[in-house]
Amino acid sequence: MAYTPVIGLEIHVQAKTKSKMFCRCSAEYFGAEPNTHVCPVCLGLPGALPVPNKASIEHSLRLSLALNCEINQFTKFDRKNYFYPDLPKGYQISQYDLPIGHDGFVEIDVDGDSRRIRIRRIHQEEDTGKSSHEEGEAEASGETLLDYNKSGVPLIEIVTEPDFEEVKEVLVFCRLLKQTVQYLGVSDAEMQKGQMRFELNMSLRNDEEKGLPDYKVEVKNIGSISVLEKVIQFEFERQSALLMKGEKPANETRGLRDLSGTTYSQRTKETEGDYRYFPEPDIPPIIISDEQFSAAKAALPELPAERKQRYMDKWGLEGEQAEILVEYSDKGDWMDQLIEKSGNPEVVKAAVKWFTGEISGLMEKNGVELKDLPVSIDDLLYLVDMIQTNKISGTIAKKVIEELFSKGGNAAEIIQANGYEQVNDTGKIAELVKQVIDENPNIVADLAKNPNALKSLVGKTMGLSKGQANPQMVDAEMRKQLGM
Length: 484
Hints:
By secondary structure, the protein is an alpha+beta fold. It folds into three domains: 8-210 and 273-296, no CATH class; 304-418, no CATH class; 426-482, Arc Repressor Mutant, subunit A (Orthogonal Bundle). 40% of the residues lie in helices and 19% in strands. It has helices at 54-66, 137-140, 167-184, 225-244, 290-298, 304-315, 319-325, 329-342, 345-366, 377-388, 394-407, 411-418, 426-439, 441-445, 453-464, 471-482; strands at 3-14, 70-71, 74-75, 78-81, 91-94, 101-110, 113-126, 130-132, 145-147, 154-160, 196-206, 217-222, 252-256, 263-268, 278-279, 286-287. The strands form four sheets. Strands 2-6-7-10-1-11-12-13-14 form a nine-stranded mixed beta sheet. It has a three-stranded antiparallel beta sheet with strand order 5-4-15, with no helix packed on it. A two-stranded antiparallel sheet has the order 3-16. Helix 15 packs across helix 16. The N and C termini lie far apart (62 Å).
């Protein structure tokens, strides 16, 4: 029997703020000594009163607007009650029935097919502390070590409807959401620092069923998109095997064993009633004024999907190229500066081909970030112009780019210093072609059986000219002298 996944996601994004959600402790806790970014509020000590972080609430509002949500301009905080050692108060300040955003959607593109993923809610809450089982004496004794530096850091939770039926849909959505929060400045979303985490809600239905299955499995604390993909595959195989045997998978919360995506049972899944939500008595309701709402909407930047579409529609870029350019907002900003300086679609397309190909490859190979890119926009536009006016070949442009990475400088000086300008002299090219023909009689003799031998002769001529001969003129002259 064939089964189809039914998947919903809960995504926790750490808001980019200087201080924590309800106190003035620094939110820059990553790498700090344990329990050094704490105070009576985030430690949950008696009598400590929380004060909401305005910047984080504004981040939630912007993200809700960007994801096409309805906005609760009257909103409030609630207590979500449960016991866990890394939750010092015994409850988490979150939002229940009046989240900041609700009933939104995201359009994703999967293999050229547009699909809509519904957003159930976007709400504001605080993070918990961190529990760890360290190696050594603590592990041997069964002790759990607690670090409360993360406790109280502002989180924005995005909850989707169970609209995903393919792994590819999940991956496209998660990458787009990551780009969106980065474009908005809501979060850096550095997953290696725990700034973006996923919880998977998944069940399977057979192709004869309609509606939602009568069970749901939750997998918590998935720290990367690649691991999320592995978890979905593992759970699909695990749940399929149970259903094929006539067993219904348990309603449960499962943990992640390792980066392979293997999961294990932790506990029976809680229901909303288990959390005993009630309004947070120490924080009054939050009112988002019409002026704040309008200002937040007007300040939304061009988002990655919109920027990608603009690059494709207005500048004729291919979808894969546009996807690379919108991956990070600074890449798109760099591209927009190039577009502003050029304004010529053909030049822009040629420049993008070099950027997404040779330049990006050297950046990855050498570990160079965009802010340190040794090839300036002026360098790239100059090289494209020199190629298009037949003053240098693509081979020479590649040499120049490699030298910019290895030695720095600028493209014009490198070309002038090395005498790289393309040879367009018909007499000189004829001499080079004749020399190659004379020196390679075996390849010439092979032409009748192997037409590709011509490419070898042209390549040897280009090598003899150190890449400076006009390749089109070399090809034409070679055919002329060989009578082809």
